[in-house]
Amino acid sequence: MAKKVRIKKRNVGIAGGILVVIIVLIIGLVKWKEKLDYQATSEYKLLSIGYSEEDTTFLIENLDKQHLNNIIENRELNEDIIKFYKQEYFLEKNLDEYLNYVKENPGTSYTDVVAIINVGANKDWYDGSKSTDTTKGSALLVNKFHSLDSDYQPNLVPIKNTYAYANAKEMDEDAYYAFISMFNAAQEDGFKLVMNYSYRNYQEQEEVYNNFKSQYGTEYADSYAARPGHSEHQTGLAFDLIIDSDYDKTNFDTSPKFAWLQENAYKYGYILRYPKDKEHLTGYSYEPWHYRYVGVEIATYIHQHNITYDEYYAYFLEG
Ligand SMILES: [Zn+2]
Description:
Bound molecules: zinc ion
Number of strands: 8
Strand content: 5-15%
Distance between the termini: 90 Å
Order of helices and strands: HHHHHHHEEEEHEHHEHEHEHH
Radius of gyration: 32 Å
Largest sheet: 4 strands, antiparallel
CATH architecture of the domain at 130-317: 2-Layer Sandwich
CATH class of the domain at 130-317: Alpha Beta
CATH topology of the domain at 130-317: Muramoyl-pentapeptide Carboxypeptidase, domain 2
Structural class: alpha+beta
Strand order of the largest sheet: 5-6-8-7
Number of helices: 14
C-alpha cells in the first residue's frame, strides 16, 4: 500500500513538472512569436531607422503602403518626407519629385517646392504641354502647360460700349454678367472699371505672338506674349482692365482703386490671375490689370488662401 502511494505521488510530481515546463515553453513561444510579429511591423522598422514615435505614428497614419515600404527599404532617416506630408497642398503622387527637387535646390521652402512641382513649374515653360480640359467650364485651365485648340469656341456675348473700349468686343456670358455686377459696385464707390482687352481668338493671338517673335526673337516674344492656344484671352473668361480711362499702367497697383479690386473682385467670381511674386508659378510677369473669371466659390477660396489659380487647379481639379 505504502509503495503504491509513493509511486502515485512521484508520478504526480513528474506530471506536474512536465506541465510546468510545457507552460513555460508555450509562454516563451508566444512571447517569441509576438516579438517576431512586432519586428515585422512598420512601427518597429520606422523606429529602428530613427524616426521619433510621433513621426512614426504620423507616417503610418498618412502614407500609402507603397511609400511606407519605400521609406523602410531605404533605411535612411529622411525628415523631408514628413515635412512634405504636412504641407497643405501635398499630393502623394508627387512625393518623389518633391524629394528630388529639394535635394537639387536646397534652401527652397517646402511650401514653394510643393507649389512648383504641383503646377509643373520645375519643367521648362511649354514643355510637354497638354490639352485644356474644356469640360471644366469657367474652371478650365489655360497656362504654359495647358492649351486650347485653334477652333475652341467659348460661349460669347457682345460687350456693351459702357463697359469696354474698342479692343474688347466679346466675352463669355457668365463672365460678362459677373463683370457688370462688379462694374456697378465700383461705380457706387465712385470710379469706373473698363475692359480694354477681352476675348481674342487663336488667330489673333498667333498674330500678336508672331509679331513679337519676328521683331525680337522667341525668348523676348515668350516673355511678353502667350503662344497661340496658351492665352487666357482665348477662353473669353479674362480681360485687361483700365480704371477711369487711365491708360498709364505704371502706377496701376498703387491706387486705392486697385486695393478695392483686391478686396472685392472675388465677390464677383474674379481673380487677379498673375500676382506679384508668383511669376515662377504662373510663368507670367505680374499683371495687376489682368482678371480672370473662375466663379465665386473658387475665387473666394483663392482670395482667402492667397494661391495662384495654377496651384488651385493642380490640387483640386486636375485628375
Ligand atoms: Zn491679359
